[in-house]
Each structure stands twice: as C-alpha cells, then as structure tokens.
Amino acid sequence: MNKIVVLSGAGISAESGIPTFRASDGLWENHRIEDVATPEAWQRNPALVQDFYNQRRKQALSVEPNAGHYALVKLEEQYDVTVITQNVDNLHEKAGSSKVVHLHGELFKSRSTVDESLVYDIEGWEIKEGDRCEKGSQLRPHIVWFGEAVPMMDVALDITYEADLFIVVGTSLNVYPAAGLVYAVRDGVPIYVVDPNIPDMHKRANVTFIPEPATIGLTELADELLKKA
C-alpha cells in the first residue's frame, strides 16, 4: 500500500471556524504572541496564558471537522495515511484520521511544569489554577511555545522520508522547523500543495499546485487518488 504523508496547517482548521494563528495585524485573538505563547509569558503571567488557552479550548469544542478533514480519512480506504499537523486542535482525530502527529502540541492535553513526560488528557475545556501533576507542580497547556524545542520533529522527519506521496494543505510554509519537512521528501516523490495562496516552492521539483481551499481541493485530490488506487 502506498504511503501518503500530509502536512496540514491553520488553513484547514480555519474552514471549520477556528481563526488562523496570526491575523494581518500580527495579533492572535487580540493578544500579542509574546504575551500568550512563549515561556517568558508563562513566567510573567501564567493566569493570562492559562485563560487564553482555556478560551481556545472552549472555542475548539464548538466546531466540527470539514470536508477537507473527511477527505483525508477517506484516503485511508486505499492508502496508508499519516497526518503531520501544525494545528493543536483535534479536528483530524474527530474526523476519524487514525494516525496524527502533532508538531506543536495538543490543545486538549495538559502537562507538568517540572516533568515534560507527564502529559494528561483534559476533561472539558479548562486547566485551573491549582490543577497539579502527580509530582505536585501546576499543569500548563501541552503546547510548543515560541522559543521551545519541537520534540516531535524527528518523528515527523522519519515519517516524511517514507512518503510515496506528500500533500501540503492549509499552510504558508513560513513556520520552521515544520516548513522544512517539504525538503525532506525524497527526490521523485510527488508533492501536492492545496491552498488558495500558493507558497514558494521553487526549490522542489514534482510539485502540483491546487489553488483551492481544503474543502474543495482535498476532496477533488482524494477522489482522484482513490480512482488511481
């Protein structure tokens, strides 16, 4: 069975109603990135950071997967599909994708502030002040903040090396190291890029651009690939 690897970004979630990460004014949900998505922000004002992610969680609970998410699930009927996502929401899992790697963490998980290996599922949408890990430290969002290492990057690279076909959807390919995955795809492997705003891919051969939103472009691509299977 051919192995399809998908790199997904904020664009696919935006079609479900989750605002994209950074608006044109440089703010994220009316907050400066530096105030809510860095280790320094957590040190400075943990209550603000906690509330910010609690609200993102609450928001994510109110949305559903879209046709783009379901198109990737449909591909599993004939292909071995792994989704590597830059998104922290759980829409790929909600749609039914069986293999999802989250590069930037998971919104619906918390983790210890003294031991990164202690990760917990969140019931509902809130991490409260005083919610502690088994070692007694306050729980924080299980999110990779700016300035932190991306622990799943090596796993994602290994998966990308094995791809027989690589799909990029809903990402500007501006956020590194995630964007570097397209350059880890083996020579000769076809790459499909689904996004209304085509990112710069001048250094890669064998790229097909589909200038459509995920709901349209991924649905068409999945139908085409399933006919070939």
Main traits of this protein?
alpha/beta, 30% helix
Overview of the structural elements:
With 229 residues, this protein is α/β, with parallel strands linked by helices. Helix content is 30%, strand content 21%. It has a six-stranded parallel sheet with strand order 5-4-1-9-10-11, sandwiched between helices. Helix 5 (67-75) packs parallel to helix 8. The radius of gyration is 18 Å and the shape is elongated. The model has no long low-confidence stretch (mean pLDDT 92).
List the helices and strands and how they pair.
Elements: E1 3-8, H1 10-14, E2 27-28, E3 31-32, H2 33-36, H3 39-44, H4 46-61, H5 67-75, E4 80-85, H6 91-95, E5 100-102, E6 105-112, E7 119-121, E8 139-143, H7 153-161, E9 165-169, E10 191-194, E11 207-210, H8 214-228
Parallel strand pairs: 1-4, 1-9, 4-5, 9-10, 10-11
Antiparallel strand pairs: 2-3, 6-7, 6-8
Helix pairs in contact: 5-8
Low-confidence stretches: none
Strand order of the largest sheet: 5-4-1-9-10-11
**What general outline do the C-alpha atoms trace?**
elongated
| Rg calc | 18 Å
Helical content, roughly? 25-40%
Question: Beta-sheet strand percentage?
Answer: 15-25%
The SSE order reads: EHEEHHHHEHEEEEHEEEH
Number of helices: 8
- What is the terminal separation in angstroms? 9 Å
Structural class: alpha/beta
Strands, count:
11
Q: Let me know the largest β-sheet.
A: 6 strands, parallel
Q: Return the average pLDDT rounded to an integer.
A: 92
